[in-house]
Amino acid sequence: MSGNADGGGEVARTHGRHEFATVSSTDVHVGRIFAVRADEVRMPGDTTSRREVVEHPGAVAVVAIDDAGRVVLVHQYRYPLGRRLWELPAGLLDVAGEDPLSTAQRELAEEAGIAAEQWSVLVDVASSPGFTDESVRVFLARGLFDAERPCAGANEEADLVLDRTPLSEAVNMVFSGEIVNAPAVSGLLAAQSVSGGFAQPRAPQAPWRDRPRRFSARFGDRAGGEPAG
């Protein structure tokens, strides 16, 4: 980002002014957990260019830290990468009418059998804004206690392994390349900053500017299944 510093130490940032208007839009694929559309977008110089966009329902993840300073991690198989990853408890915003905090609380219980007394927002992560509107809100949970964990069923979560790792060790796993999941990387580094007194988390219902809406709007009041209409 370019800018010029003034005498007061602030950075004067310049911003582009072109409006990237959508000229036309065509659905390429509409599935249960994402959709792909192809848009023709107005570019500077009065030209258009094709942009393929993956629509996503959005997701949440949870940095759950116990009284001993240990963070809850899950080891889960991820088919696209062909291996198991160390991650945070997380899940899609795929339940109609459920707010992100409630989703985070439900996922923490379902994946880890844990509930928490204190909740706040650490970071919002635009996973890959060059081609998808996916955004993940990462929560901080403290004051942990046991909660009922539902049956995992027969999917990847049936093979999920739980661990509690000191936060400092989990951060070292980020820098060693052992933790690569984007919400986990950003969430753990943010939690380290908060724990060290270098940053303050936001309220659990803080505004989420980039929360995805378009994919869910395809389904109306329904969650999952085929799009309405």
UniProtKB/TrEMBL annotation:
GO BP of this protein: nucleoside phosphate metabolic process; ribose phosphate metabolic process
Domain Nudix hydrolase, first and last residues per copy: 54-187
KW Hydrolase (keyword) present: yes
Example of a GO cellular component annotation carried by this entry: cytosol
Keyword line: Hydrolase
Classification via InterPro entries: NUDIX_hydrolase-like_dom_sf, NUDIX_hydrolase_dom
Biased composition (Basic and acidic residues): 219-229
Keyword Hydrolase: yes
GO MF annotation terms: hydrolase activity
Region (Disordered) residue spans: 198-229
Protein name (Swiss-Prot/TrEMBL): ADP-ribose pyrophosphatase
